[in-house]
Specification:
Number of helices: 9
Oligomer: single chain
Strand content: 5-15%
Strand order of the largest sheet: 2-1-3-4-9-10
Distance between the termini: 41 Å
Number of strands: 10
Largest sheet: 6 strands, parallel
Radius of gyration: 18 Å
Length: 282
């Protein structure tokens, strides 16, 4: 590609477990508006259909990682530099990918290395039993309010969607034990590799995250190969990309990538920020 048509850098984002790319739409839109190429893949057995809520059989997490590597390689061949990131378990998957591929930057939103938020049900303590092969093929766990959302209007919409179609923008109405078992394996895989990850990283987390407490952020600060930039949000729960501060979250991601994963020289109109809200962060 010649200098008159410079390559546009790419961003590869992964949604959460048993969810779909809709939950990343505000962030992806913000990045595309300033000129990034953004891909939010839907991977078989990791997410669910946005239309039907159907989830294919859950493979070992290594299959998810292989699909992530293939997506990264396609983008890298076309666009050179690729930043990776995600929401919840998608952020964990992005960390696993960064241990195998040269990610230009890391975007870690509501990262979940520990299921220890204030709304985590006591049944989570029984998960090791559900991981036994005969049980994990049959068991699933119902998602409960607030569904990661502090915004009451969005929460009501999600509850209605789950009641009628078994799926919503924040994911499926039930999480299978098989999915959670593979997620637990992925978390162990990633935690062992954190010190080798030295790409520039931004961590976005709610102070009232109902799924993953600040413990995950503190572990990332201690153990990542390069200390991350951390932003705390005070008027949202786990689903930062959709909740009350979604515009500020998208802007924070955009501004971080413009610094750490800069665009090639594009016309000035492409690089003009489109939002003026201020993220709440410490």
């Amino acid at each position: 590609m010649n200098s008159m048509h410079p390559q546009r850098p790419a961003v590869l984002l992964f949604h959460g477990l048993c969810a779909n790319p809709l939950e990343l739409a505000p962030v992806a839109k913000s990045l595309r508006e300033v000129g990034y190429v953004v891909e939010t893949p839907a991977m078989a057995g990791y997410g669910v259909s946005a239309a039907t809520g159907e989830q294919l059989p859950v493979p070992p997490f290594e299959h998810w990682l292989a699909e992530a590597e293939a997506a990264f390689d396609r983008l890298a061949a076309q666009h050179g530099r690729v930043a990776v990131g995600g929401l919840c378990m998608g952020a964990v998957l992005a960390l696993a990918l960064a241990a195998r591929r040269p990610a230009a930057a890391l975007v870690l939103i509501s990262t979940t290395l520990h299921f220890d938020g204030w709304n985590v049900s006591p049944w989570r303590r029984l998960l090791p039993l559900a991981y036994l092969p005969p049980l994990r093929r049959r068991m699933s766990f119902k998602e409960t309010a607030p569904f990661g959302l502090k915004n009451e209007r969005l929460r009501a919409w999600v509850e209605q969607a789950m009641a009628t179609t078994q799926v919503s923008a924040v994911g499926a109405a039930r999480l299978s034990a098989a999915s959670l078992y593979q997620a637990s394996r992925l978390i162990r895989h990633v935690r062992a590799r954190l010190p080798r990850l030295a790409a520039p990283a931004v961590v976005l987390h709610a102070t009232e995250d109902d799924v993953a407490s600040p413990r995950t952020v503190h572990e990332l600060q201690r153990r990542l190969g390069q200390p991350p930039e951390v932003h705390w949000f005070h008027d949202s729960y786990h689903m930062l990309t959709l909740d009350n501060e979604r515009i500020a979250v998208a802007r924070t991601v955009r501004d971080f990538l413009l610094r750490s994963h800069p665009l090639a020289a594009l016309p000035a109109t492409h690089a003009t920020p489109t939002w003026t809200d201020h993220a709440q962060h410490a």
